[in-house]
Write a structure and sequence with these properties.
Layout: H1 9-23, H2 31-39, H3 41-45, E1 53-57, E2 61-62, E3 67-69, E4 72-76, E5 80-90, E6 100-111, E7 116-119, E8 122-124, E9 134-144, E10 161-162, E11 166-168
Antiparallel strand pairs: 1-4, 2-3, 3-8, 4-7, 5-6, 5-9, 9-10, 9-11
Bound molecules: calcium ion (CA) (3 copies).
One calcium ion binds next to loops.
Length: 170
């Protein structure tokens, strides 16, 4: 299975749309059009960070009793509230739609300045493959509450981050 890196069509479209305005040398009013593009700059510079926060899908950890902890590490350089969406799978050959879907979760976490917080997401993993071990992984996407109380956009689908695939014997 693989993640296909996709170009962010939205930002390139925005740039193309801006060209006629700028080349016409329109007055300052046209700068308002550039507003949304500039707002995305933070994200473009460091695709991983949203408003100073990152969330990382850690390697799934096998626990006793057929349980697996699909851990997520969250870190912010300021006091923030982060929301995380998680999808958990057991890997099969071919595209993701043929993988076994284990479950999904939604977390809201308060993170303090420069604190590394681990979110534990424990799920049961049965003997899904008769032959050999089960290969488990998870995907996450996140958003961050801004100072003005509004939420950032969710990281786009192409920005869902995938953990390593870890084998667990069942
Ligand atoms: Ca498998
Ligand atoms: Ca399977
Ligand atoms: Ca098995």
């Amino acid at each position: 299975m693989s993640i296909t890196p996709t170009k962010k069509a939205r930002s390139s479209r925005a740039k193309i749309a801006l060209v006629p305005f700028l080349s016409l040398g329109l007055f300052a009013g046209s700068m308002a059009v550039a507003g949304p593009a500039q707002a995305n700059n933070d994200h473009d510079r460091d695709r991983d960070r949203i408003h100073g926060c990152t969330a990382t899908p850690e390697d799934p950890r096998d626990l006793r009793g057929n349980r697996v902890d699909f851990r997520i590490e969250v870190e912010c350089n300021d006091d923030r509230v982060v929301q995380i969406r998680q999808l958990r799978y057991e890997d099969e050959r071919g595209p993701r739609r043929s993988d076994d879907f284990l479950g999904h979760s939604f977390f809201t976490v308060k993170v303090h300045e420069d604190e590394e917080k681990t979110v534990h997401s424990v799920d049961h993993v049965r003997n899904l493959d008769r032959r050999g071990a089960e290969e488990v992984y998870h995907l996450i996407s996140f958003r961050v509450k801004k100072d003005d109380g509004h939420w950032s956009d969710w990281s786009h689908w192409s920005d869902w981050k995938q953990s390593k695939i870890v084998e667990v014997d069942r």
